[in-house]
Structure formats: structure tokens, C-alpha cells
Write a structure and sequence with these properties.
alpha/beta, globular, Rossmann fold, five-stranded parallel beta sheet
């Protein structure tokens, strides 16, 4: 299954879970540069939610945390930090927060809704809610981003393997068995 990320959106806003997965990969800059759309992240997510990953592995009880450093990507123009701007975005944030989404997801989705941006998230509840409420907004997952990177940048198999292992261990992310790219992900780890 080939994955080329093409959207009818000019921007893709990253939720905290995807930020942490990409950062844990050790390949975030290369992954972001593989896609033509502009990547954004809510300032709230940068300052409050996507703060750290495990330095080694969550299963290592002594594993220290590694701070997520997004400023170099922002400085290079690969990632734009954005905030709620309009009253409509703020009202949507409050309405989405009332739906029991966490604040980072609610801000991310409010911005995406009003600016017609794609959303990158792996949160199942947020995906289900957002797909139902705002079906015109494209949702992109970590596996889709990684597969697109693999197909466009063609990293060595050992680099791809380590990228997937690092995402799983440092960001505590597992691809769901029902995800369309689950078999591909597992195959790349062999």
C-alpha cells in the first residue's frame, strides 16, 4: 500500500501525540521536510503538552525523560507555532473542550476547523469525534507520515527499523491492529 500525503489543505496541524512520536523517531526534521504542506503546532501543545519523551524506553523504569525541543524546527521554518486568533476559534475551542477532548486536542481541532487545515493525530477518540463532526478535514496518522517519509526519502532499512522502534519505546506508541498500515509497520520491524 503506497502512501503519498496529498491534501486539499495547505497546512497540517500536529497534535501532541504526533509531535511526540515524530520527535521520538529521531527523524522529525527529515519527515517534515518530506511533505510539501506546511506543518504547524498550537503554542499550547508546545508549552503544555508535548514536553518530553522517554530517553530510552517507558519499560525501563529508570529511563529519564528527554525534553522535546521544537524551537530548532521552528527556527528553520519546518514548523510554525500558532495560536487561537478569532472569536470563532475561541468559541469552537470551548465547545470542543466540553466534548471531553483534552485542551491540546480541542485547540488543535478548533484551529483546523476554522482555517481548513488537515490534522495529524493518533488519538482514537479525537479522530472519531472529529471525523464525525468535521468530515471535510483530513486526518493524518503517524504511520501515514512515516510511510510517506519512507517512500519519498528512502531511508536505509536499518534507519527505518530504528525509527519505528524509537517511536514505540520513547513515545510509548503502538499502531492499532485495525490501522491500515499495521502490517506494513510490523513488517518493517523484522
Amino acid at each position: 500500500m503506497s502512501v503519498k500525503i496529498t491534501t486539499h489543505h495547505d497546512y497540517i496541524i500536529l497534535d501532541a501525540c504526533v509531535i511526540m512520536n515524530l520527535y521520538a523517531s529521531g527523524q522529525m526534521e527529515d519527515i517534515l521536510s518530506a511533505i510539501k504542506e506546511t506543518f504547524t503546532v498550537a503554542i499550547y501543545v508546545v508549552e503544555i503538552e508535548a514536553l518530553s519523551i522517554y530517553a530510552k524506553s517507558k519499560s525501563d523504569v529508570l529511563s529519564e525523560k528527554e525534553m522535546v525541543q521544537l524551537q530548532p524546527l521552528i527556527d528553520k521554518g519546518l514548523l510554525l507555532a500558532v495560536d487561537l486568533e478569532s472569536e470563532a476559534e475561541k468559541a469552537s475551542f470551548l465547545a470542543l473542550s466540553a466534548q471531553r477532548l483534552d485542551d491540546g486536542e480541542a485547540i488543535t481541532m478548533a484551529i483546523a476547523k476554522h482555517r481548513n487545515w488537515a490534522v495529524a493525530t493518533d488519538d482514537r477518540r479525537a479522530i472519531k469525534f472529529f471525523s464525525y463532526q468535521y468530515g471535510h478535514i483530513q486526518i493524518i496518522s503517524t504511520p501515514e507520515l512515516i510511510k510517506h517519509w519512507q517512500e519519498s526519502k528512502k531511508p536505509e532499512p536499518k534507519v527505518l527499523y530504528q525509527t519505528l522502534v524509537d517511536i514505540e519505546s520513547k513515545a510509548n506508541y503502538l499502531v492499532g491492529k485495525k490501522h491500515p498500515l499495521y502490517k506494513w509497520w510490523q513488517m518493517c520491524k523484522k
